[in-house]
Amino acid sequence: MLWLIICVGSSPFSVVVHMSSKVGLPAVLPCSVASHLEFDQTPHIQWHTLSYSVFERMGPEQFQGEAYRDRADVPEELLVRGNCSLFLQDVRFSDAGIYDSYLVYGESNIKNRIFIQSVHLAVIDHKAIKSVEIGADLILDLYTYQAEQVIFQNSNETDWTVLWEKDGVINKKGHLKKRDNKLILSRVTASSAGTYKILDSEGLALSTVKVKVTEPVLTKETETLQKQSALGKATMSMPSLNLIALFLTFNLMLQMN
Protein backbone atom coordinates (compact mmCIF):
# COMPACT_ATOMS: atom_id res chain seq x y z
CA MET A 1 0.00 0.00 0.00
CA LEU A 2 1.30 3.44 -0.95
CA TRP A 3 0.68 6.46 1.25
CA LEU A 4 1.10 10.10 0.43
CA ILE A 5 2.23 11.81 3.62
CA ILE A 6 1.81 15.55 4.04
CA CYS A 7 3.68 17.28 6.89
CA VAL A 8 1.54 19.67 8.91
CA GLY A 9 2.84 22.00 11.59
CA SER A 10 6.51 21.08 11.30
CA SER A 11 8.83 23.95 12.14
CA PRO A 12 12.63 24.25 11.88
CA PHE A 13 12.46 26.71 14.81
CA SER A 14 10.96 24.21 17.25
CA VAL A 15 12.73 23.85 20.60
CA VAL A 16 15.12 20.89 20.71
CA VAL A 17 15.27 18.79 23.86
CA HIS A 18 18.87 17.96 24.78
CA MET A 19 19.75 14.77 26.63
CA SER A 20 22.67 12.41 27.07
CA SER A 21 23.21 8.72 27.70
CA LYS A 22 26.25 6.64 28.48
CA VAL A 23 27.18 4.14 25.80
CA GLY A 24 25.74 0.66 26.31
CA LEU A 25 22.94 1.82 28.59
CA PRO A 26 19.25 2.35 27.71
CA ALA A 27 17.91 5.80 26.82
CA VAL A 28 14.39 7.22 26.69
CA LEU A 29 13.75 10.05 24.22
CA PRO A 30 10.71 12.01 25.49
CA CYS A 31 7.57 12.54 23.45
CA SER A 32 3.89 13.24 24.19
CA VAL A 33 0.87 13.32 21.87
CA ALA A 34 -1.87 13.41 24.49
CA SER A 35 -3.19 16.76 23.22
CA HIS A 36 -3.52 15.40 19.65
CA LEU A 37 -5.22 12.08 20.36
CA GLU A 38 -8.89 11.28 20.10
CA PHE A 39 -10.45 8.55 22.20
CA ASP A 40 -11.29 6.37 19.18
CA GLN A 41 -8.02 7.00 17.34
CA THR A 42 -5.31 4.38 16.85
CA PRO A 43 -2.00 6.21 17.42
CA HIS A 44 0.44 6.14 14.53
CA ILE A 45 3.90 7.40 15.49
CA GLN A 46 7.11 7.83 13.51
CA TRP A 47 10.64 8.55 14.73
CA HIS A 48 13.35 9.65 12.27
CA THR A 49 16.88 11.00 12.27
CA LEU A 50 18.15 13.21 9.47
CA SER A 51 19.35 10.12 7.59
CA TYR A 52 17.37 7.12 8.84
CA SER A 53 13.93 5.87 9.75
CA VAL A 54 14.27 4.71 13.35
CA PHE A 55 10.91 3.36 14.45
CA GLU A 56 7.25 3.45 13.48
CA ARG A 57 4.20 2.11 15.28
CA MET A 58 0.53 2.02 14.33
CA GLY A 59 -1.27 0.10 17.06
CA PRO A 60 0.22 -3.40 17.22
CA GLU A 61 2.07 -2.97 13.90
CA GLN A 62 5.64 -1.73 14.07
CA PHE A 63 8.72 -1.08 11.96
CA GLN A 64 12.34 -0.86 13.13
CA GLY A 65 15.12 0.71 11.08
CA GLU A 66 18.01 -1.61 10.22
CA ALA A 67 20.47 0.20 12.50
CA TYR A 68 17.98 -0.05 15.38
CA ARG A 69 16.92 -3.67 14.93
CA ASP A 70 15.84 -5.18 18.29
CA ARG A 71 16.86 -1.97 20.07
CA ALA A 72 14.06 0.56 19.46
CA ASP A 73 10.47 0.64 20.67
CA VAL A 74 7.52 2.87 21.49
CA PRO A 75 5.54 0.58 23.83
CA GLU A 76 1.94 0.27 22.68
CA GLU A 77 0.58 0.33 26.23
CA LEU A 78 2.17 3.77 26.72
CA LEU A 79 1.30 5.07 23.28
CA VAL A 80 -2.45 4.57 23.76
CA ARG A 81 -2.15 6.94 26.74
CA GLY A 82 -0.36 9.58 24.68
CA ASN A 83 3.23 8.73 25.64
CA CYS A 84 5.17 8.36 22.40
CA SER A 85 8.66 8.28 23.99
CA LEU A 86 11.27 6.30 22.06
CA PHE A 87 13.02 3.60 24.10
CA LEU A 88 16.54 2.75 22.89
CA GLN A 89 18.50 -0.20 24.24
CA ASP A 90 22.28 -0.70 24.23
CA VAL A 91 22.98 2.86 23.04
CA ARG A 92 25.87 3.18 20.57
CA PHE A 93 28.11 6.11 19.69
CA SER A 94 26.54 6.04 16.21
CA ASP A 95 23.13 6.74 17.81
CA ALA A 96 24.18 10.31 18.65
CA GLY A 97 22.22 12.97 16.76
CA ILE A 98 18.82 14.62 16.38
CA TYR A 99 15.64 12.55 16.46
CA ASP A 100 12.28 13.89 15.21
CA SER A 101 8.92 12.43 16.20
CA TYR A 102 5.67 12.70 14.17
CA LEU A 103 2.02 11.83 14.62
CA VAL A 104 0.51 10.41 11.42
CA TYR A 105 -3.25 10.51 10.87
CA GLY A 106 -5.74 10.13 8.03
CA GLU A 107 -8.32 7.59 6.87
CA SER A 108 -7.32 7.17 3.22
CA ASN A 109 -4.09 6.74 1.29
CA ILE A 110 -3.37 10.41 1.90
CA LYS A 111 -1.86 10.78 5.36
CA ASN A 112 -1.11 13.94 7.28
CA ARG A 113 1.91 14.14 9.56
CA ILE A 114 2.18 16.47 12.55
CA PHE A 115 5.63 17.27 13.91
CA ILE A 116 5.80 16.66 17.67
CA GLN A 117 9.29 16.92 19.10
CA SER A 118 13.02 17.07 18.30
CA VAL A 119 15.45 15.42 20.69
CA HIS A 120 19.22 15.76 20.51
CA LEU A 121 20.94 12.69 21.94
CA ALA A 122 24.57 12.86 23.04
CA VAL A 123 26.37 9.57 23.75
CA ILE A 124 29.28 9.61 26.20
CA ASP A 125 31.76 7.03 27.45
CA HIS A 126 32.22 5.64 30.96
CA LYS A 127 35.03 6.85 33.23
CA ALA A 128 36.02 5.47 36.62
CA ILE A 129 38.81 5.40 39.19
CA LYS A 130 39.32 2.23 41.24
CA SER A 131 41.55 1.26 44.14
CA VAL A 132 42.35 -2.45 44.53
CA GLU A 133 44.43 -4.25 47.16
CA ILE A 134 47.27 -6.56 46.15
CA GLY A 135 45.96 -10.12 45.87
CA ALA A 136 42.34 -9.03 45.35
CA ASP A 137 40.33 -9.19 42.09
CA LEU A 138 39.85 -6.27 39.70
CA ILE A 139 36.43 -6.25 38.01
CA LEU A 140 36.03 -4.34 34.74
CA ASP A 141 32.45 -3.79 33.56
CA LEU A 142 32.11 -4.17 29.77
CA TYR A 143 28.65 -2.48 29.91
CA THR A 144 27.71 -3.66 26.41
CA TYR A 145 28.19 -6.42 23.87
CA GLN A 146 29.83 -3.77 21.68
CA ALA A 147 33.06 -4.33 23.67
CA GLU A 148 35.68 -5.86 21.39
CA GLN A 149 39.03 -5.30 23.10
CA VAL A 150 40.71 -4.30 26.36
CA ILE A 151 44.03 -2.48 26.33
CA PHE A 152 46.28 -1.61 29.27
CA GLN A 153 48.91 1.03 30.00
CA ASN A 154 51.12 0.50 33.04
CA SER A 155 51.50 3.53 35.30
CA ASN A 156 55.25 3.63 34.60
CA GLU A 157 55.06 3.10 30.82
CA THR A 158 53.78 4.85 27.70
CA ASP A 159 52.98 1.83 25.52
CA TRP A 160 49.57 0.12 25.41
CA THR A 161 49.21 -3.65 25.61
CA VAL A 162 46.24 -5.66 24.33
CA LEU A 163 45.04 -7.78 27.26
CA TRP A 164 41.84 -9.28 25.86
CA GLU A 165 39.87 -9.58 22.63
CA LYS A 166 36.28 -10.66 22.17
CA ASP A 167 37.12 -13.63 19.95
CA GLY A 168 39.47 -14.98 22.62
CA VAL A 169 42.57 -14.98 20.41
CA ILE A 170 44.45 -12.59 22.72
CA ASN A 171 44.55 -12.93 26.48
CA LYS A 172 47.88 -11.67 27.78
CA LYS A 173 47.04 -12.60 31.35
CA GLY A 174 45.91 -16.17 31.98
CA HIS A 175 43.98 -15.01 35.05
CA LEU A 176 41.79 -12.59 33.05
CA LYS A 177 38.32 -14.15 32.72
CA LYS A 178 34.99 -12.97 31.24
CA ARG A 179 31.83 -13.56 33.26
CA ASP A 180 28.36 -11.96 32.93
CA ASN A 181 29.58 -9.11 30.69
CA LYS A 182 32.43 -8.37 33.10
CA LEU A 183 36.17 -9.01 32.94
CA ILE A 184 37.77 -10.28 36.13
CA LEU A 185 41.52 -9.85 36.68
CA SER A 186 42.42 -12.23 39.51
CA ARG A 187 45.19 -11.81 42.07
CA VAL A 188 46.16 -8.22 41.33
CA THR A 189 49.83 -7.30 41.73
CA ALA A 190 51.64 -3.96 41.94
CA SER A 191 52.25 -4.12 38.17
CA SER A 192 48.47 -4.14 37.58
CA ALA A 193 48.30 -0.41 38.39
CA GLY A 194 47.57 1.79 35.37
CA THR A 195 44.87 2.63 32.86
CA TYR A 196 42.47 0.14 31.27
CA LYS A 197 40.45 1.02 28.16
CA ILE A 198 37.54 -1.00 26.76
CA LEU A 199 37.22 -0.42 23.00
CA ASP A 200 34.48 -1.05 20.45
CA SER A 201 34.98 -2.33 16.90
CA GLU A 202 35.86 1.20 15.71
CA GLY A 203 38.57 1.58 18.34
CA LEU A 204 36.53 4.07 20.37
CA ALA A 205 36.80 3.91 24.16
CA LEU A 206 33.57 2.63 25.71
CA SER A 207 35.15 2.87 29.14
CA THR A 208 38.35 4.17 30.74
CA VAL A 209 39.32 2.93 34.21
CA LYS A 210 42.31 4.23 36.16
CA VAL A 211 43.44 1.64 38.70
CA LYS A 212 45.54 2.20 41.83
CA VAL A 213 46.97 -0.85 43.60
CA THR A 214 47.47 -0.64 47.37
CA GLU A 215 48.95 -2.81 50.11
CA PRO A 216 46.40 -4.91 52.01
CA VAL A 217 44.99 -3.13 55.06
CA LEU A 218 45.50 -5.17 58.23
CA THR A 219 42.56 -5.52 60.58
CA LYS A 220 43.09 -4.74 64.28
CA GLU A 221 42.82 -8.44 65.09
CA THR A 222 45.53 -9.36 62.56
CA GLU A 223 47.78 -6.56 63.76
CA THR A 224 47.37 -7.68 67.39
CA LEU A 225 48.22 -11.28 66.48
CA GLN A 226 51.35 -10.17 64.63
CA LYS A 227 52.49 -8.11 67.63
CA GLN A 228 51.85 -11.02 69.98
CA SER A 229 53.79 -13.35 67.69
CA ALA A 230 56.76 -10.97 67.58
CA LEU A 231 56.67 -10.54 71.36
CA GLY A 232 56.54 -14.30 71.82
CA LYS A 233 59.62 -14.78 69.67
CA ALA A 234 61.47 -12.18 71.70
CA THR A 235 60.42 -13.83 74.96
CA MET A 236 61.43 -17.27 73.69
CA SER A 237 64.94 -16.01 72.89
CA MET A 238 65.66 -14.71 76.47
CA PRO A 239 66.38 -18.15 78.10
CA SER A 240 68.75 -18.97 75.26
CA LEU A 241 70.72 -15.76 75.88
CA ASN A 242 70.86 -16.48 79.63
CA LEU A 243 72.23 -19.97 79.03
CA ILE A 244 74.91 -18.64 76.71
CA ALA A 245 75.95 -16.01 79.29
CA LEU A 246 76.09 -18.68 82.04
CA PHE A 247 78.18 -20.98 79.85
CA LEU A 248 80.66 -18.23 79.06
CA THR A 249 80.96 -17.26 82.74
CA PHE A 250 81.54 -20.88 83.77
CA ASN A 251 84.16 -21.28 81.04
CA LEU A 252 85.99 -18.16 82.19
CA MET A 253 86.08 -19.38 85.80
CA LEU A 254 87.63 -22.70 84.73
CA GLN A 255 90.36 -20.92 82.80
CA MET A 256 91.22 -18.74 85.82
CA ASN A 257 91.64 -21.84 88.03
Q: Describe it for me?
A:
The protein is built from 2 helices and 18 strands. Strands 1, 2, 4, 5, 6, 9 and 10 form a 7-stranded mixed β-sheet that branches. The protein has a 5-stranded mixed β-sheet with strand order 11-18-17-13-14, with no helix packed on it. The chain has a 3-stranded antiparallel β-sheet with strand order 3-8-7, with no helix packed on it. With about 260 residues, it is α+β, with helices and mostly antiparallel strands. Strand 13 and strand 14 form a beta hairpin.
TL;DR?
16% of the residues lie in helices and 41% in strands.
What is the secondary structure topology, with strand pairs?
Elements (H helix, E strand, L loop, with lengths): L3 E5 L7 E7 L4 E3 L14 E5 L4 E6 L2 E4 L7 E2 L2 H4 L6 E3 L8 E9 L4 E15 L1 E8 L4 E4 L7 E6 L6 E5 L10 E4 L2 E4 L8 E6 L5 E10 L5 H37 L1
Parallel strand pairs: 1-10, 2-10, 11-18
Antiparallel strand pairs: 3-8, 4-5, 4-9, 5-6, 7-8, 9-10, 12-16, 13-14, 13-17, 15-16, 17-18
For the sheet with most strands, the description reads: 7 strands, mixed
The quaternary organization reads as single chain
Give the CA-based shape.
elongated
How many helices in DSSP terms?
Answer: 2
Number of strands: 18
Range of strand content? 35-45%
Find the structural class using helix and strand composition.
alpha+beta
Assign a percent range to the helix content: 10-25%
Integer-rounded radius of gyration: 33 Å
Strand/helix succession: EEEEEEEHEEEEEEEEEEEH
For the terminal residues, how far apart are their CA atoms? Answer: 129 Å
Subcellular location: Cell membrane
InterPro entries: Ig-like_dom, Ig-like_dom_sf, Ig-like_fold, T-cell_Activation_Regulation
Membrane topology: Single-pass type I membrane protein
Protein name: Ig-like domain-containing protein
